[in-house]
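I'll show a typical protein example:
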Amino acid sequence: MAEILNPAPERLLVCVSPSPSSANLINSAGKIAGSLNAEWSAVYVEDPGMVILPEAAHQRVADNLRLAEQLGGETFTLRGRNIAREIVDFARQRHITRIIVGKPQHSIWTGSLRRSPVDQLVRISGEIEVCVVSGEPAEEMEKAYVIRPGKIRWSDYGAGILYFLVVNVLCYLMYPYFELSNLIMVYLLGVMVTAIECGRGPGILVSLLSVLAFDILFVPPRFSFAVSDAQYLVTFAVMLVVALAISHLTAVMRQQAEVARLQERQAAAMHSLSRQLAGSRGIGNILDVGVRHISQIFDCRTVALLPEDNGKLKPSAGDVSTVFQENIIEELNIARSAYRAGQTTGIGTRTSPSAEILCVPLLAADSTLGILALRPGEPERFLLPEQLQLLESLVKQVALALEVEYLSTGGIPCRA
């Protein structure tokens, strides 16, 4: 009798990008997975070049991953230079049978000059089926959180000008004893130091000023824009290109180092909170641990609110007067709204976005246990996408510890 083999279960993988149309792709993947009764995952691959994307793009990625979670998919963030290779390796590890990607939107000229990750993915996917879905134009997702751009730090530009002046003095002292090519190296060194210490903007500014200063101070005839030898025009052009490249690459390395430090800080925070929650007993002690950690990590003031028998919220950990300060009644209403809806409410959210506090619900399996209310120290730099993900993870840990404590002492209170 012929042996009947059961087909392997379908496992889908959808590739997430910062594109607004990625939300349509995720919705399609969720519907396909539902029709096939299949497990599915959403993956975003961040290569080094994506670190320098604008904050709005990073926020769209966070929104897209959150949408995938809401539709029942697992979400993962990978890092690597070769996007297609990272996706295929991940898919094989997870036994993925079908990869869903969006059709790349580029001009015929761009497509002829470089191969897109989608093209490479199709080429190296092997036995895994790749479904390329047309990237239909889509309205940009309504952002769950508004990311405020950081202020320009004029002190960095001042420091960059100071480095530039120091380099000029050094080159002026070297001029009688060294060739002009050696002075160029000193200027490039100044550009690199500026980009490392002050960032991309000051680095670009110093790059431009260095070329001008080199022309005026050292290229004959000196102290004028005139150039006696046309060959120096090539020198200026090459010097500018090299200086800008050094500034850009150094700034990228600086940002990558900051991202690495943030990830290390996140891992340490998660580990520390998990360790202390594991050793805490009692609702008050658990909330004290959560409030203390979140306040320190996000440089904010935090208070935990739990419901009473009549449904009203009462402070259970933290100093309530440091969080609810100005429009106390309005801010308390925001906290009650977050508790009743079981959704994050307040600063930058769809609900009460102009508020100065953020209320995050402590969610159990089928109820809301309470609220964490946060007042940021620097509202304009509060809750970047990476910070938001960390905050959600920490709050989930606190809520899980509370849920375990409630279950061990007689049950979870119902949401009012």
